[in-house]
Amino acid sequence: QFGNMAHAPYVYSGYPFSRWFHGLMTGSFSAWEPNMNYVNQVGGVGGNPFGPASNGASGVTHDFCFVTRCDRAQGSEQNYAIFGIRAQNDVNTARIFTGGNSATVTMAYSNVWLGDRRLPAMSSARPVDRGWVDDTASRTHALSNISATDQGLGVYGITLAGAASGNGTLRPSCSGDPYRSPCPASWSTSAFTYQLNEGITALSLRPQDIVDNQGTAQTWTEKADRSAPTLSVSGRLKQFENKGLYDPEYDLNVSASDPFSGIKRLEVFVDGLLKASKDVPCGIGGGCGSTLSYAFRPDNFADGEHTIRVVAVDQVFDVNASSADRHRTVAEWKVVTDRRGDIYTSRQFTDDPGQGGGLIAEEWAKFQTSTARRREEDIISTRTGVTCSRDGSTAARCGEVRDVSRFGEDNAGAGEIFTLYRGATESDPRLQEIGELNQMASDTAGKQPVAQGPLSDVVQAWQNKPPAHGSTYVAYESRHTVDTTTGVDTPEGEEELPGGEQVTVRLWLDENTKLPVREIATISTGEEMSRRYWTYELNRLEDAEVPADFFRTPRPAMVEQDKEVDYRGDDALGPQTEPETGRSYQPYALGKTPIVKGLPYCLATGSVETLREPGTDSITNSSGELAPGPSGAVMQRATAYYNVLPADAVCGGGLGSLSDPSLVVRSTEKESSLAQAWKSAYIEIGEVAQTNPLHTDFLRSGPVPLLPLLNLEGTSTAYVITIDDETSGVYIEKGNTAIVITGAFDKTNVNDIATALEAQ
């Protein structure tokens, strides 16, 4: 039996969107208990904050809900349920409904909804944005006096978001029950602690109320940098770490980056002294990088070891802070400057000298400078020669001679070093110390290599690698066409058959020093034309051991023409007038004989020319008579000046006993159609010591055998000495006068000839 139930009429309580339903119920049940829930703006249902769902009365349960099984639909407003009750009886249907267990009969319900549309708000000041800091020592940050207000049902919490850790909601000690545990209208806390990610972090604080209304968030940024900047150094100053410096200047390139606070300053120190620096105006966002360049000039520093130190610091760096080293990156190394010239010697061979490879040339280069001097075994002249002859009493006819090779002249530089040219001035670059090795490296500037690989792949076992070499090689190729014009005999006379051949030259250089190690030249058919190898030695010499003129040959004052003139036949070789220009010339000898580490060196350089003589020219036969020269006769002329060469080697590139450094010796050999083999040596003596002190040291000590005979008075004179192999006679010619010397003496020795001449 259910008791009588009386329902109160619908009552509007006057609170917006609130309804009060009150029921009066009789029957068998125990005490009533309120059971409450709430729904927010988005329809979410919260748990019952106020006690049990049932009072345990037999057959009767009562609760409050806003779910679909309740009679009353859910509210669509931001409402808070402060009271709700439903009484229902679970009826045992075992005796009433066949096959059933129970049924529920709703007896009555009543509830009240309270609405809250007002959003909470942060009432404390927004936390300030922080600049870059290093929080390594204490990564936990705290917020104090954070507060919020709510004019509705009160503040139910404040939420922190954006941190690496410590995000979440802090709440006041309330449940939201307006009667038993109401939330405060204003609430503050100092309990927020959190940690940051490295870099820039955006954080926020947002308030909320009991129905989960959320107010506008306060946002701010904090910046953390716990890392050192990244530093990179490059350039030749770094490449020569722990090595000697030999060039006038070494570049250093510095690059630094920092993804967080950014670079603040770059510095370069030498031996603790600041030499270059750069301040970087990095913005508030950080992340900036920067570069700095510096040129190290060895001549500005004393001899010895020097410490190079490069420093990069970021925006967090504070020299007085314990974190200073975490925000400073340093690169440090040592280099050596030494005015005692480190001199390396390169020797150029056709192949392994132990297997018969021939020495082509030697070059000496001095560290700290680009100075070099060079000696070649077969030195090819780069200058145009002039040869003159005359037939009988007619005037001398002169014609230009094409050199066998214009080595270097077609390669933007002089091919041989210390060949002094007549007509050159003191500033003429042909008189400067030019090394082929430096020139070869310069020729590759701006070009792309055709190959690259381990240096050991192209250096043979017998070769020494360049000083301060790297581990890789770079190979370059160049192509040029050579003249292969040949002469042929025709019924009309000799004619030239034009021709040309393309030559490909591949050059292998050490990548670090740009010094050559190998070169191979091939023609268009693939046939190898020539090859060269370089091997190196390094010596350290004190300044006193290197003569001042070791790398520079003095230029005699009388050098005034840039053509080498060679008169043959009965023309004297004294002071002459060059027919084409009318300018006079003087033959001369080169400078002193230096002593390096106790070893004498001689000065030598020269030229080899192949001359084709016209048929109208004449020669001097063994009887001293002028005779017509054969058509097309070929003469090879070798000219040797003396240059740097150790005393245990042969001076003059293999010219035998003609090794007197006071002479310029020209040996001429010719085969004519008359089958007459003849030799002549032209001996040219420069101005005597009395008028040119430059020659004092290299003229033979003691009485000079030829001087009394030459009768020199401040001028240069030369004799033509002709040796007749058949009669063993020696013919001394001066102008149109000839003296014949006979007797038993060494006719290939200048001193013996002079002695015999003096005796006669």
Task: Itemize the secondary structure elements and their pairings.
Layout: E1 5-7, E2 23-25, E3 38-39, E4 60-62, E5 79-92, E6 102-115, E7 121-122, E8 132-133, E9 141-143, E10 146-149, E11 155-161, E12 168-170, E13 186-189, E14 192-194, E15 199-209, E16 218-224, E17 230-234, H1 236-239, E18 250-257, E19 263-270, E20 273-279, E21 290-296, E22 304-314, E23 328-337, E24 342-349, E25 359-366, E26 372-376, E27 385-389, E28 397-401, H2 436-443, E29 451-454, E30 472-483, E31 486-490, E32 493-497, E33 500-510, E34 516-523, E35 528-540, E36 564-567, E37 576-577, E38 584-585, E39 595-596, E40 599-600, E41 604-612, E42 618-620, E43 626-628, E44 634-642, E45 664-671, E46 677-684, H3 707-710, E47 718-724, E48 729-734, E49 737-741, H4 750-759
Parallel strand pairs: 8-16, 27-36
Antiparallel strand pairs: 1-2, 3-5, 4-5, 5-6, 7-10, 9-14, 10-13, 11-12, 11-15, 15-16, 17-18, 18-21, 19-20, 19-22, 22-23, 24-25, 24-35, 25-26, 27-28, 29-30, 30-33, 31-32, 33-34, 34-35, 37-38, 39-40, 41-44, 42-43, 44-45, 45-46, 46-47, 47-48, 48-49
